[in-house]
């Protein structure tokens, strides 16, 4: 069974918390975790066009899990 986290668009910390909790739930219950990349995020105060890309690189989930 494949499981992913819910789609969110709030801040980085809230989204990361959801990702980690879902990942741990899958590991503890022998389920397959599928990563859902960021699509929107609050607090990009400098309007950085690579903001989401930088956050993806920071957590390093994108290329390490099925999407």
Structure description:
The chain is mostly helical. The protein is 39% helix and 6% strand. It has helices at residues 12-28, 51-59, and strands at 2-3, 32-33. The chain has a two-stranded parallel sheet. The longest helix has 17 residues, at 12-28.
Mean pLDDT, all residues: 96
Which residues sit in consecutive blocks of at least 5 with pLDDT less than 50?
none
The largest beta-sheet arranges its strands as: 1-2
Structural class: mainly alpha
- Helix coverage percent: 25-40%
Distance between the termini: 14 Å
Q: Would you spell out the secondary-structure blueprint of this structure?
A:
Elements lengths: L1 E2 L8 H17 L3 E2 L17 H9 L8
Parallel strand pairs: 1-2
Short description:
The chain has 2 helices and 2 strands.
Give keywords.
single chain; 67 residues; mainly alpha; two-stranded parallel sheet; 2 strands; 39% helix; elongated
């Amino acid at each position: 069974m494949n499981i992913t986290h819910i789609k969110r668009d709030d801040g980085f910390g809230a989204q990361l918390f959801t990702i980690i909790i879902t990942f741990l739930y899958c590991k503890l219950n022998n389920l397959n975790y599928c990563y859902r990349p960021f699509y929107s995020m609050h607090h990009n105060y400098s309007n950085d066009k690579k903001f989401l890309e930088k956050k993806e690189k920071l957590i390093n989930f994108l290329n390490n899990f099925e999407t």
